[in-house]
């Protein structure tokens, strides 16, 4: 049974929601650049796939290290100051690419990415739960999916621009400067920080949750939150692993060279990813988020299995379709995990934002499997991760039916 259409955004929250959307674009851009840098550094510095995976590892290590401090900071000082501080760290990290390029030091590049990761942790810890609160609770998952769609737009733009800069027409190394896109990004980020420092965002207050005897209820007593935390970690392993080695996979299969692969990643994979989020946001205004998540989890398990079967172009098409199926997973799991947490929301968000450490685990495992076997077999890593997401989706769908 379809539910009645409910407004996506509260009337008094339109301007704050538009401002928050800009943040989703900025961190989508930052994440997607990594997928091009991975292949670029393999060739430029002559390093292995597992070594190049340190690019993702350092970025997402920033999430793991900074998630709890970000949650404490935002709980004390509010969402707006959390956003401004995150943007400042993001900008500083981008400018550290200048000495990295000058000395051509992989370690300086890694440190810069770690600082950017710390900044993105503040942004996501603030923006994700804030977006869920700017309207009716029934459309929280749909609203977050809509905001996250602009994350997908940033993901499309990044590989196009950096692929043109870093790879030549024949797929080899271009003459571009890897610091240039980061410096441009840093300037934009600092300008956005200036805007957020001058505007007032409405602060969302929550009442404390207590039991029948008036005692505070522990966050960890919410089982769906704990399972959601595990599922989100597994999703990050799957998504980031595939993004990290997409270019390697299609190049080693002999289908295209690196520059063409960066375009396919942008318009094919990440284009479908963005459209999947827009479509998912629209569908979830009529269909329960739990049901949508289950269908999409089933789809991504099937498409990843087809990649493992190594059926030529069928596997490539399946891989691209997987981007559409996985598109709604992060915002939907995030929103469902925060449901009913009340005063625990900001703290819970900080724990959920530790899950991108899957970006450390997944690419390292996938890179190791690829180095010791081949790229096709390495897809067993995201396949196993998506199986966990499927079990979570089935569990929360069953729980919603019995509620």
Main beta-sheet annotation: none
Low-confidence stretches: none
pLDDT averaged over residues:
85
Share of helix, binned: over 70%
Q: Helix segment count? A: 16
Shape summary: globular
Number of strands: 0
Q: Please identify the structural class as seen in this structure.
A: mainly alpha
Strand content: under 5%
Distance between the termini: 16 Å
Order of helices and strands: HHHHHHHHHHHHHHHH
> Over all CA atoms, what is the radius of gyration?
20 Å
Can you characterise this structure?
The chain is mainly alpha-helical and 403 residues long. The protein is 76% helix and 0% strand. The protein contains 16 helices and no strands. It has helices at residues 14-44, 49-52, 54-77, 79-95, 97-103, 106-133, 140-166, 179-198, 223-252, 258-283, 289-309, 313-326, 329-338, 345-352, 358-372, 380-402. The mean pLDDT is 85.
TL;DR?
The protein has helices at 14-44, 49-52, 54-77, 79-95, 97-103, 106-133, 140-166, 179-198, 223-252, 258-283, 289-309, 313-326, 329-338, 345-352, 358-372, 380-402. The chain has 403 residues and is an all-alpha fold. The radius of gyration is 20 Å and the shape is globular.
List the main descriptive attributes of the protein structure presented here.
single chain; 403 residues; mainly alpha; globular
SSE topology:
Elements: H1 14-44, H2 49-52, H3 54-77, H4 79-95, H5 97-103, H6 106-133, H7 140-166, H8 179-198, H9 223-252, H10 258-283, H11 289-309, H12 313-326, H13 329-338, H14 345-352, H15 358-372, H16 380-402
């Amino acid at each position: 049974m379809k539910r009645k259409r409910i407004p996506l955004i509260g009337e008094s929250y339109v301007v704050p929601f538009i401002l928050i959307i800009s943040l989703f674009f900025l961190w989508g851009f930052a994440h997607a650049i990594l997928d091009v840098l991975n292949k670029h550094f393999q060739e430029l510095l002559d390093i292995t796939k597992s070594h190049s995976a340190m690019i993702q590892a350092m970025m997402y290590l920033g999430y793991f290290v900074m998630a709890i401090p970000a949650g404490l900071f935002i709980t004390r000082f509010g969402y707006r100051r959390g956003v401004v501080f995150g943007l400042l760290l993001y900008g500083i990290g981008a400018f550290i690419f200048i000495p990295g390029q000058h000395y051509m030091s992989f370690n300086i590049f890694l440190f810069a990415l770690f600082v950017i990761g710390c900044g993105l942790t503040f942004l996501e810890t603030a923006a994700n739960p804030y977006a869920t609160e700017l309207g009716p609770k029934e459309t929280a998952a749909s609203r977050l999916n809509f905001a996250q769609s602009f994350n997908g737009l940033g993901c499309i733009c990044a590989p196009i621009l950096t692929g043109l800069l870093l790879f030549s027409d024949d797929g080899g190394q271009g003459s571009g400067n890897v610091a240039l896109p980061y410096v441009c990004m840093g300037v934009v980020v600092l300008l956005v920080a200036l805007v957020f420092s001058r505007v007032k965002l409405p602060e969302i207050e929550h009442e404390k949750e207590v039991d029948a005897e008036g005692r505070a209820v522990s966050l960890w007593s919410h089982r769906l939150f704990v399972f959601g935390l595990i599922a989100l970690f597994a999703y990050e392993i799957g998504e980031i692993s595939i993004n990290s080695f997409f270019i390697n996979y299609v190049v080693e299969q002999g289908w295209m060279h690196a520059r063409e692969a960066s375009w396919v990643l942008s318009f094919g994979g990440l284009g479908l990813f963005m459209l999947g989020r827009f479509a998912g946001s629209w569908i979830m205004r009529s269909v329960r988020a739990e049901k949508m998540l289950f269908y999409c989890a089933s789809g991504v398990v099937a498409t990843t299995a087809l990649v493992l079967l190594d059926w030529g172009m069928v596997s490539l098409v399946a891989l691209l379709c997987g981007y559409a199926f996985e598109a709604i997973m992060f915002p939907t799991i995030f929103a469902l995990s925060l449901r009913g947490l009340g005063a625990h929301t900001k703290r819970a968000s900080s724990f959920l934002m530790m899950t991108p450490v899957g970006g450390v685990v997944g690419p390292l495992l996938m890179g190791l499997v690829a180095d010791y076997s081949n790229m096709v077999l390495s897809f067993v890593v995201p396949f196993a991760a998506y199986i966990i997401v499927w079990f979570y989706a089935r569990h929360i769908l069953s729980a919603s039916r019995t509620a």
